[in-house]
Amino acid sequence: MNIAERASIRAAAPRDIDAIVGIVNEAIASRGALDECPKTREDGKLWFSTHDERYVMLVAVDAEGHVVGFGSLNRHLPEHDACSGVATLWCFLASGAQRRGLGTLLVSELERHARNHAFHKIVARTFPANRGSRRLLRNFGYRVVGVHKRDAVIDGTYTDIMVLEKLLSPGHYKLGNPGTFE
Ligand SMILES: CC(C)(COP(=O)(O)OP(=O)(O)OC[C@H]1O[C@@H](n2cnc3c(N)ncnc32)[C@H](O)[C@@H]1OP(=O)(O)O)[C@@H](O)C(=O)NCCC(=O)NCCS
Description:
By secondary structure, this protein is of the alpha+beta class. The chain has a domain at about 5-120: Gcn5-related N-acetyltransferase (GNAT) (Aminopeptidase). It has five helices and seven strands. The protein has helices at about 5, 15-30, 40-50, 100-115, 130-140, and strands spanning about 10, 55-60, 65-75, 85-95, 120-125, 145-155, 155-165. Strands 1-2-3-4-5-7-6 form a seven-stranded mixed β-sheet. A hairpin with a 5-residue loop joins strand 2 and strand 3 (about 65-75). Coenzyme A (COA) binds near residues 98 and 132.
């Protein structure tokens, strides 16, 4: 049985902050996240304060109970209320837990959650050089929207950011009737 078959996904809890921050910092160090500076415990606390049952934070837990992955649905263009049906996606695996199906498990669960919580689209952003992220998202049917040129500065160098998206609903989201599509 592989690690993904023995792993479970659950809602993140405040006791997971250190593990989550550690996993995100590994991604930052390997240039897998769109940040340059390491995150702190305070950043982790802020994520909990800006997420809730709808904008969910999930963790992947291995058979021994260790948190080895983190994924979330985040606010998309929070300054615009008309965009509240769209979420952005984060997915990070601890280095020792990558390429074993856990990212696939996390994204599956995030999409299931999004469909059940009145999101009709998910947007993801990644560095064009991030082959793992692009492969994972491509497997789920995300299409490349485009590439923002010089959207980040990493190690003193302008870096492009690729934007991908996936429509979750086959048609128009039926307003006022959460969770269903017409
Ligand atoms: C990218 C990431 C989330 C993928 O999760 P994962 O658990 O490693 O991926 P999975 O095992 O579910 O594999 C999903 C697909 O991605 C591919 N993949 C994963 N890592 C890869 C890599 N480094 N290079 C090329 N392909 C990769 C797998 O081969 C698989 O494709 P396939 O089924 O067509 O063969 C994970 O590797 C990670 O956290 N990386 C560092 C942080 C990061 O880049 N996060 C994404 C930010 S947008």
